[in-house]
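pasting for ref
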Amino acid sequence: MNCPVGLAERLNRDCDCVVTDVPALQQRLIGRSAVETHPNLFAEVPVFVAKQHVRDTQRTISSVETVSRLPGFREQVLARAPAIAKNPPRHRGVFFGYDFHIAADGPKLIEINTNAGGALLNIEAQGTSQACCPQVSDSPGDEPSRESRGQAIQRMFAEEWRLARGEKPLQTIAIVDDEPDRQYLYPEFLLFKALLASHGIRTLIADARDLTIESGRLTHDGQAIDLVYNRCTDFYFEHAAHASLAEAYERDLAVITPHPFAHALYSNKENLVLLSDAAALRAIHVPEPEIEVLTRTIPRTLRVEGSEPAWWEDRKRWFFKPSAGFGSRGTYRGDKITRRVFGEIMRGGYIAQQLTPPSERNHSKGGAFKLDVRNYAYDGITQLMAARLYQGQTTNFRTAGGGFAPVYQLG
C-alpha cells in the first residue's frame, strides 16, 4: 500500500476534526429555515482520497467515453431505448455524475448519472472548509477556486448552446423540474439562477407542466426559452406533464440538457452489464487497455433472469437495482433482502451488481459513515469531486451528521 493511499485510509478512520460550520453554511446558501428543512445536506467532516485513486476515477471515465463512441456499443444500448432517445443531438449533456466506492484495490464505478445534482452546492460550500490535520494543511492548495469553478459551469452551458446553435446569442435559460420549489435540492436551483444571471443570461425556474409550445418555440408565461437545464427524472419525457419537453426535444425547438439520448447511452443501468463483460466488449472491438480498466473498476453486473432458487441461493454476493431507476429507489443488498421483495425482483426489470461495500469515514459525533465519491464531469473530464456520507443501505440525506462532504486529495 503506497503512502497516500494508506494516509487517506488512516485519516478517514481517525481524523476527528470538524472543518465545516454546517449551520452557518446552510443559512448562507439556503436561509434561516435550513436547519429544519435540510439538516443533513452537508457533513461536518471531509473525506480523504489518494490522488492515485483520483487518477483511477478519471481513467475509468475516459474509458467509458471511449466505448460510448463506438458504433457497436451504441447499436446495442440504443436498441432497447425508446424512439425519443435514439438520435444523437449535437450537444453532449451537462452534469454527468460518476459514483464510485473506494475499495481496497481501488475505486469501483457503481453507476453513472446524467442529471447529477449537488455540484453547485458543493462548489459554493468550498470556501467554508478549513484544512484540519497538519498532514493535509496544503492538500486543497492546488484546487480551483470557487469562483473559477463557477465560471467553468457557466462556460459549460455556453458550450452546450454553441454546439447546438453556433454563434446565435443565448438569451434565456429555464431550470426545469416537477414542482421545483418542492424539490429537496431547490436551493441549488436558486444558486444556478443567480450564477447564470450574473453572466447576463435571463434565467427562470419553471415547473415542467407550465411549459407550452407557441409559434414554434418552447415558452413559459409567454417567454421564449432558448435552453432548458433539465432536472426532471422522467428521462424520456414519457409522462403527460412533460409533453412540451418531449415535443421541444424532438422538433429541436429548444436546447435541452441533459437529454434522453445521454441517459440511454450512459445511465441506463443495463449498460453496466456490457461495460463489465470482457468478452462482450471484445466482440464490439473495444481496445484491450479500455477493457482492462472497465472490467477492473466496474463490478460485474448481470441481468436478473433465470432460476429464482439459484439467484436466492447466491443473493448475498449481489446488490439489486432496477434497470430504469434513479437515486436509491428500489435498490437492495442481497444479504438484507426479504423473500417477498426478492420475488418482486425476479419478475423482471432488475440488474444485479457484484456487491462492493463502500469505504467508511469515522467521526465521534456520528460513528461510522459509509461514503461514496462522485465525479461531476462534462465531456469526459472531471470538474469537481464530492463525497456523500450516509448510514443504511444506500445514499441518503436522512443521516444525522451525513450529507455532502468536501474531498481532500492526498499525495
